Amino acid sequence: MSALRLAIIGPGKMGSAVAELAASVGHDVVATIADGMSIDVDSLNGAEVAIEFTEPGAAAANVTACVL
Known about the structure:
alpha/beta; three-stranded parallel β-sheet
């Protein structure tokens, strides 16, 4: 399996656990985006996959920002 370039949106307990696990199996966490940070092509840093772990009220806007 090829390493994926991951962005973690919401580096709380769950986001941090996923980032740690992903790194331990050879994936690259290339972006960690905390609450209040903008999500754009620069902050995503070439990520192929974004994993969103924020509160439900912010999720839709965060996912939309990832695809624009």
